[in-house]
TrEMBL record:
It comes from the Bacteria. The lineage of its organism: Bacteria, Bacillati, Bacillota, Clostridia, Lachnospirales. Keywords: Cytoplasm, DNA replication, DNA-binding, DNA-directed DNA polymerase, Nucleotidyltransferase, Transferase. It holds the Pfam family DNA_pol3_beta_3. SUPFAM superfamilies: DNA clamp (SSF55979). Forms a ring-shaped head-to-tail homodimer around DNA. The keyword Transit peptide does not apply. Residues 1-118 form the DNA polymerase III beta sliding clamp N-terminal domain. One of its GO terms (cellular component) is cytoplasm. GO terms for molecular function: 3'-5' exonuclease activity; DNA binding; DNA-directed DNA polymerase activity. This is Beta sliding clamp. Confers DNA tethering and processivity to DNA polymerases and other proteins. Acts as a clamp, forming a ring around DNA (a reaction catalyzed by the clamp-loading complex) which diffuses in an ATP-independent manner freely and bidirectionally along dsDNA. Initially characterized for its ability to contact the catalytic subunit of DNA polymerase III (Pol III), a complex, multichain enzyme responsible for most of the replicative synthesis in bacteria; Pol III exhibits 3'-5' exonuclease proofreading activity. GO terms for biological process: DNA strand elongation involved in DNA replication.
Length: 369
């Protein structure tokens, strides 16, 4: 095999597929990136058996062939080569020369025949949306997936399609994040749970441009993302997702409208007094026309008042400040509406159309704080 391509094209391709190289595996071939130049295109592939990514790069094929190169050393070599044309050439013994200007590397490769190609997915109906929309949906929900495997379903996000509405849901036992977006046409109803790791990696590769599209296809076991000469195939998480509708109440005793930026800045300031790993609640005292926020830790205490518009009862309630910050950071609205029931019931931050809903459970606190 012999191919020639620019460093920028090769580096971009390697960077994309590297996201599917496993950090630990008992199969050394999976630690490789496959370079496939057996047809008229140069295709790079990586696969950890849960997540697989392939991308096509521009370049010239001088001699057709396929090899697998250790991903770690290959990506480091490519990254540190000069910004010029790179030639990759392998002989019958799989000894591979990587040349750029005066730099020459000779490394051993593995046979491409042993590599686990991406599974062939027979795609049924696909949904199409802008890369910007998908990237935003992930950004606005991914922070509330669980980061441990005690409940596998919590480590993924629910993608639910109902006619022309796509709803994305994540939860970790303390909070729920929901985002909805309108699709361009009606689709068959479907519910799947996509691993959070897959969504994080897809989000990093997406350009995020509004006029670029991404195509999503689902089977019983897999999800496929296709965009910009790249294909990402991931296993879905099996099982029935939690019935979140039972947790979403429209009842409230207290309704607060508040400037989002002011509230976010205030909570952000309060966390200056909380050491990492310290679980200090922020206490919120809701009164007529004013919300008082206070926090107390070993480092000191802080309190601040923000003007609000309130309907209903006064309320004293405590929250994990990080959960409030995570939700407020991804809301674009200038003013947010918070619905509360009592000091032990979750609060809801949502807009009128319910294009977003953030549910956050309160925490117990000592009223004397």
């Amino acid at each position: 095999m012999k191919i020639i391509c620019t460093k920028s094209n090769l580096a971009k391709g390697v960077n994309i597929v590297s996201k599917a190289v496993p950090s630990k595996t008992t199969m050394p071939i999976l630690e490789c990136i496959l370079i496939d130049a057996t047809t008229d295109i140069i295709k790079l592939t990586a696969n950890d058996m849960e997540l697989g990514i392939e991308t096509i790069i521009e370049g010239d094929i001088i001699q057709k062939g396929v090899i697998a190169i250790d991903a770690k050393i290959f990506s480091e070599i490519v990254r540190k080569l000069p910004d010029n044309e790179i030639t990759i050439e392998s002989d019958s013994n799989l000894q591979t020369m990587i040349t750029c200007e005066k730099a020459k590397f000779s490394i051993s490769a593995k046979s491409g025949e042993d590599f686990s190609y991406l599974p062939y997915i027979e795609k049924a109906e696909s949904i199409t949306l802008s890369q910007f929309t998908l990237k935003e949906l992930i950004r606005q929900t991914i922070f509330s997936i669980a980061d441990n495997d005690s409940n596998k379903l919590m480590t993924g996000e629910l993608f639910e399609i109902d006619e022309n509405i796509l709803k994305v849901v994540s939860l970790d036992g303390h909070r729920i994040s929901i985002r909805k977006t309108e699709l361009t046409k009606n689709y068959q109803s479907r519910k799947v749970v996509v691993p959070g790791k897959t969504l994080m990696e897809v989000s990093k590769i997406l350009s995020g441009e509004a006029d670029s599209t991404v195509c999503l296809s689902f089977t019983d076991n897999h999800v496929v993302f296709e965009f910009d000469n790249t294909v990402v195939v991931s296993r879905l998480i099996e099982g029935e997702y939690f019935r979140i509708d039972q947790m979403l109440s429209s009842d409230y005793e207290t309704k607060v409208k508040i400037n989002k930026k002011e509230l976010l800045s205030c909570i952000d300031r309060a966390t200056l007094l909380v050491k990492e790993g310290d679980k200090k609640p922020i206490i919120i005292n809701i009164m007529d026309e004013v919300m008082e926020l206070r926090i107390k830790s070993q480092l000191g205490s802080m309190n601040e008042e923000i003007m609000i518009s309130k309907e209903g009862k006064d309320l004293l309630i405590g929250f994990n400040p990080k959960f409030l910050i995570d939700a407020l950071r991804v809301i674009e609205d200038e003013e947010v509406t918070i619905y509360l029931m009592n000091a032990k019931a979750p609060c809801f931050i949502r807009d009128e159309k319910e294009s977003y809903v953030y549910l956050i459970l309160p925490v117990n606190f000592n009223a004397g704080v």
